[in-house]
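If you are new to this repository, start here. Below is one unmodified record pulled from the training split, so you can see the exact layout before writing a loader.
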Amino acid sequence: MRFQGKRVLVTGASRGIGLATARAFLSEGASVAINGRTSDSAQQGMDLLDAGPALVAAPGDVSTVGGCEAIVNAAISGLRGLDVLVNNAGVFFRGSITETDEAAWDRVLDANLKGTFFCSRAALPALRESKGTIVNVASESGIRGYGDTSAYCASKGAVVNLTRSMAMELAPDIRVNSVCPGVVETDMARDGFAIDGDRDAGMRQQADQYPVKRIGHVDEIASAILYLASSDAGFINGVALPIEGGATVGA
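And here is the target side for that same chain:
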């Protein structure tokens, strides 16, 4: 019960890695604010977790500054403070450079990068008070580049370096780290890597590219996030932790 009495906000917590992370924090004693882009999606996450008063809804769109501030304010108000911020919300876009128009670029960078920065900024007073932690969900694609995902790679690479910068600026009051997952079994990944609409074929192709010959599970990413947020990682600050079956070892 490493997080007994701790207050946690997880953005993008209605499904996938975010939902698994919220569930893991709850299992270790935390109270958790659940963010979804809409009130309905935030409620969907709360219904799936079914943890009663340990849950608080914090709906809002991380791609706008106002949305980030509304999310954080709702979490702090409902939880009466904040100890951990997990910047998980994001979007994936697969397309060549010529297929990436301004709208696609803005959608990816706003959700993945601007959301991480401005949710963190809004949470700083509460996290300074609690001597809290931030964990940013970056990506394997933030460590090495891949074709046909330039906007996504750019956004996640920026999150990795943003993590380093924030870690230096906010220490010693707030520790900041990031996780860099590879392909994980989520709806977003299955849709994004589908081959001619075949989601299973896409996942098989992705698994074959990893040295361990499989893709990741959401609980594996959640476990790493909880470790970095816990006192067990008290001397870790500014890391980008790869969780990708060895894909970036030779990068």
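Two things worth knowing about this chain: The chain has eight helices and seven strands. The chain has two domains: 7-181+217-241, 183-215.
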